[in-house]
């Protein structure tokens, strides 16, 4: 399945809507942005650097530079949008092996968890005006520990609880808040694991569907959660993992 095919399935639902995807210039975020665009939404993406934004513009996106750890910048970026129907919080970082340093730990949490909260808070009034929705990006490490990535694991566990809490808090505004938890997905960040025959064998051996996931698989789940097909769904954390979590 491609992001395009997933998007086309939901095209009537997202026509005319405006979506913001933080971290939407590469990897899973880029696939989500492409899927939302194919579903009819006008999509704005953000990346950390000008080079990332330039790459996204070359692919036809309205792209901006944004550090989600900078609250003032987040407020300004979202405040500048005349309309907002969908927010996908995909900006994140991981520092394998370095996150036992408290300073690195704090940096990772500030981006992955703090950045998600900043964007949700800034977007709440605009989403309330449109009856919009939020999708946060969690992880399999929201449920499992990660010996090399305590900051990433802690932040993604926090994203799960934040999602549930904001689903309650924002419901009175008519804003739904959900999350997806990707499993083992083929992105540059997992290329080392994909190239390691022993690790790949272990991963696929535990995955009932017997394959790596693709960014488009995650995009399809996000499109569903932002569409009217999920109108009575909030506070959900949806694993997109081929059954890895339950095996």
Explain briefly what this protein structure is.
The chain is α/β, with parallel strands linked by helices and 247 residues long. It has ten helices and seven strands.
Task: Sum up the structure in keywords.
247 residues; alpha/beta; seven-stranded parallel β-sheet; 10 helices; 48% helix
- Write down the oligomeric state: single chain
Number of helices: 10
Uncertain segments: none
Mean pLDDT: 94
How many DSSP E strands?
Answer: 7
Q: So what's the overall shape? A: globular
The end-to-end span amounts to 23 Å
What fraction of the residues are assigned to beta strands by DSSP?
5-15%
The helix content, as a percent range, equals 40-55%
Question: Which radius of gyration do the C-alpha atoms yield?
Answer: 17 Å
- Give me the strand/helix succession: HHEHEHEHEHEHEHHHE
How is the biggest beta sheet arranged?
7 strands, parallel
Topology of helices and strands:
Elements: H1 3-9, H2 11-14, E1 18-22, H3 27-38, E2 42-47, H4 50-58, E3 62-65, H5 71-79, E4 86-89, H6 102-130, E5 133-137, H7 150-170, E6 176-182, H8 191-195, H9 197-206, H10 215-226, E7 237-240
Parallel strand pairs: 1-2, 1-4, 2-3, 4-5, 5-6, 6-7
Helix pairs in contact: 1-3, 1-10, 3-10, 5-6, 6-7
């Amino acid at each position: 399945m491609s992001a395009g095919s997933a998007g086309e399935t939901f095209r009537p639902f997202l026509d005319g809507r405006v979506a913001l995807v933080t971290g939407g210039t590469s990897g899973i975020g880029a696939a989500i942005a492409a899927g939302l665009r194919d579903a009819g939404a006008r999509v704005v993406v953000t990346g950390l650097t000008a080079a990332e934004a330039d790459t996204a513009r070359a692919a036809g996106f309205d792209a901006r530079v944004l550090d989600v750890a900078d609250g003032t910048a987040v407020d300004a970026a979202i405040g500048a949008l005349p309309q907002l129907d969908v927010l996908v919080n995909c900006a994140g970082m991981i520092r394998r092996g370095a996150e036992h340093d408290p300073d690195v730990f704090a940096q990772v949490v500030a981006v992955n968890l703090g950045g998600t909260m900043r964007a949700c808070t800034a977007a709440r009034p605009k989403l309330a005006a449109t009856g919009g929705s939020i999708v946060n990006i969690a992880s399999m490490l929201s449920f499992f520990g990660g010996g090399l990535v305590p900051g990433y694991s802690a932040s993604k566990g926090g994203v799960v609880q934040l999602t549930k809490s904001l689903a309650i808090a924002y419901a009175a505004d008519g804003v739904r808040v959900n999350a997806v938890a990707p499993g083992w997905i083929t992105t540059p960040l997992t290329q080392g694991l994909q190239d390691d025959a022993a690790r790949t064998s272990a991963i696929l051996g535990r995955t009932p569907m017997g394959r790596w996931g693709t960014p488009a698989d995650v995009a399809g789940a996000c499109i569903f959660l932002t569409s009217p097909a999920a109108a009575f769904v909030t506070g959900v954390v949806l694993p997109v993992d081929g059954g890895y979590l339950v095996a």
